[in-house]
Every structure is written in C-alpha cells, then in structure tokens.
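Thread title: Can someone regenerate the structure for this chain?

I was given the following input by a collaborator and told the matching structure tokens would be attached. They weren't. Posting the sequence so someone can regenerate them.
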Amino acid sequence: MLAVHDLSVNYRGIEALSEVSLTLNPGEWVGLIGPNGAGKSTLVKAILSLVPYQGQILLNGKTLKRQRRQVAYVPQRSQIDWDYPITAWNVVMMSQTAALGWVRSPDAKAKKRVSAALDRVEMLPLRHRQIGQLSGGQQQRIFLARALAQRPDLFLLDEPFSGIDKKTEAMMLSIFADLSEQGKTLLVCSHEWGDALLRYHRLLLLNRRVLANDTPQAVMTMDNIQHAYGANIQSVLNDGAPMPFDC
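Best answer:
Regenerated them for you:
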C-alpha cells in the first residue's frame, strides 16, 4: 500500500503541491487527472524522491528510499532523449542494474526477465533496434517492458497513452488489467476525458491539492471539473473533449 501524507512541494517560493494526502491499495488502478500545471508529474516525481518535498511517503509502512526497487516509473515521452545511442534490449536491461550493479554482467536470470518483458509487449524481435528508430508506440512499449522486468509492487506511469497507436493502447490496457489482478498498484497520469476514464477503479482530481478522490462517475461531475479547471473549462470543451459523465 502506498500512503502519502500532507505532501507539499515548493519551487523557489511557488507552491506546486499543497498538503496532498492519498492512499493506493494493492490491485488498484488509479487515474491521476487535472489541468496542465496541476502538479500531476510533480506528485509522481515527489513519490520517487526526484524533487524535494515536505510530508511523508510510505510503501507498505516503510519509506520508499529503503525499497526503491519496488517502484517502477514510466516517464513522459518528452522527457526521454530519443537520440541517445541505446538499443531496446539495453533500455530494458537497465531495470536489472540495481540488483546486478554497474560492473557485473547480466546473468541468465536477468536476461530471462528482460526477454520475457520484451516478449510481453511484442518487441522481442526488435530488441537490437536503436530506440530512436522505433515508432512512438514501440518506444512506449519498450519503457513499459523496462518497468515489467523490474517486477515492482507499484507502477507510476506519466501520460503512457500519449502519442501511441490503437494496437499499443489496447496492449497496454490488457497489461494494466493483468497487473491489477496480480495485486500490483498502478497510478496513471492522464489527460483523457469521457468514457476512457471508466477503465480506472478510482480517479484523483488534482490541482495543486486533491479536489476529488472517488470512482470515475463520482469525480467527473461538472462541479468538480469546473472547480479544477476554472475559467479554462470552456476552452477544454471547445477542443472537443467529451463531456463529463453527468452532462
């Protein structure tokens, strides 16, 4: 179980997150939604201790610093240098570095885990391809495979459905459902609206603080959305986003 208590993040005096508290239970598949600049990515990075924060973050009652291997992170595609000369195989093999160290060569067990993860996302035949030579959907599959090969308890995914094809989306949804059934916990940052949000067990609506935390139907009301998006709500709807469930 992930428990976040009174988490706040400040950047040079600017409050990015304010007293955020939440609990994620084993097997839960939770969507993190909110407007641009709401602090979704900041929350994920704080959980990973990638940004300084105030508050408490516990996984199964212990600090994450003592069990970092139990948390896998799939970053936004925009945060990755796709020109870096590395193969798909080596990206996924990075998931084994913490256990092997930087000096030891991968053993048979590590190679088997990497092969299984690549096979799960149907990328094993392209394992020697440079990541920059892959399509957007294929690139996202590789980083999901890296997370799978780590075999963590908690998955943190930042906009995993951005810029991917329908086949990759369907595959990822199937994998997420399998992970949930296995008791894994998933927190997914998302910009999606409408019926796509029904896939989640629960939604967290964020705008620097938690505005709603409930089932998709209970969270996606016009009152909640207006509270989160404020004056920007009309521009979002004008861009063609589906209306909330109660409209």
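The chain is about 30% helix and 25% strand.
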